């Protein structure tokens, strides 16, 4: 597939996609989801080598892979369970910025689950916001435009689970209630 075809299918510009390919830009979760759909591949396969995929994956805290550069403004993401084979959700550690004014609202197919591990955060939606503290969580349709910011002195640490709608309404674990 050419860069031009992939860019068109994913709804991004060819020049932006070229920057991603050369490591000069890091795509957002929404753009990564669009690229995975355009490539007809699971989202997590964009972050892991196919030879390393496995059915049971343990990711130690010091083994998380940074998916965004340390000094880049905006949210920082760390990959979790990148070597897991077929997944219905993709987990990340999310470290949102304090200033979300310059960050655009994002939306994408699927659902998201946020769990505050450390610090305080605010989920910003067009019509409302939700403040979250340690141990709080929120689950929402990712088609709702959203962004997250840290509150307080320290940058919050959140577990983010992204689920794509590609599988439809099938239960991911039919043996569980």
UniProtKB/TrEMBL annotation:
The keyword DNA-binding applies. Pfam families: Cupin_2 (PF07883), HTH_3 (PF01381). One of its GO terms (molecular function) is DNA binding. Residues 1-46 form the HTH cro/C1-type domain. InterPro entries: Cro/C1-type_HTH (IPR001387), Cupin_2 (IPR013096), Lambda_DNA-bd_dom_sf (IPR010982), RmlC-like_jellyroll (IPR014710), RmlC_Cupin_sf (IPR011051), TransReg_Diox_bact_type (IPR050807). Keywords: DNA-binding. This is DNA-binding protein.
